UniProtKB/TrEMBL annotation:
Family: Belongs to the SurE nucleotidase family.
Record bears the keyword Transcription: no
Protein name per UniProt: 5'-nucleotidase SurE
EC number, as in UniProt: 3.1.3.5
Function comment: Nucleotidase that shows phosphatase activity on nucleoside 5'-monophosphates.
Amino acid sequence: MRILITNDDGINAPGLKVLSAIAEEIAGPEGEVWTVAPAFEQSGVAHKISFTHPFMIAELGPRRYAAEGSPADCVLAALHDVMADAKPDLVLSGVNRGNNAAENALYSGTLGGALEAALQGLPAIALSQYLGPLNFDAELQFQAAAEHGVQTVRALVDHGHWDSADYRIFYNVNFPPVPADRVKGVRVGPQGYRSDASFGVEPHISPAGRRFLWIRGGAQHLPTAQGSDVALNLDGYVAVTPMRADLTAHDCLDDLKARLE
């Protein structure tokens, strides 16, 4: 199997090393793992592409490239330049440091990379590691993803729903905020919503008297609806959510037609 990996934490992020190990095992001894990842951290850029300016890409080693762009840029660079002669069979994005569950999914560059791969017609999985009091130590942060990543990805590759719709399915995987030996298993659930965890800003004054604003997120350990991604993670399960890029509110179409047409 030929696998492309990317992330939004940057080419030197520890989560990318974890993902590389997962991908190598999935690809097998006859397979290939290609890395095209941002040269610098790109957290929070969602599905951004560098549409109005070019970005530099550099080869760092065999099948390893860094691009001065977003994760979606990296996927485009891989598919149409670096790997143009033979497209990958699978695209993996992550492993993100921090969860991309609930509303975080909408801001995530990690998901942006997987979403772009799906739009390009390829199977794609985004992987993120939830952090909390039980796994915040550096040695434990990616343990759940490292120990359970291969099994989860392989299960999706072999048994996941893969279609050829215009807006193809891709998968959002979040590993729970616990050490590997406390992971209870894998559960499928929808994207949740943390009602009191929206982003905001915090003003600061620099030594020179300039006013700056830091973006600040809300509490990450607020539960979501039972059976949804955050609730599953906080209960110790790997959460798997199928997603599409189609933003249409299909549940409202018929009612809106009746009101407006």
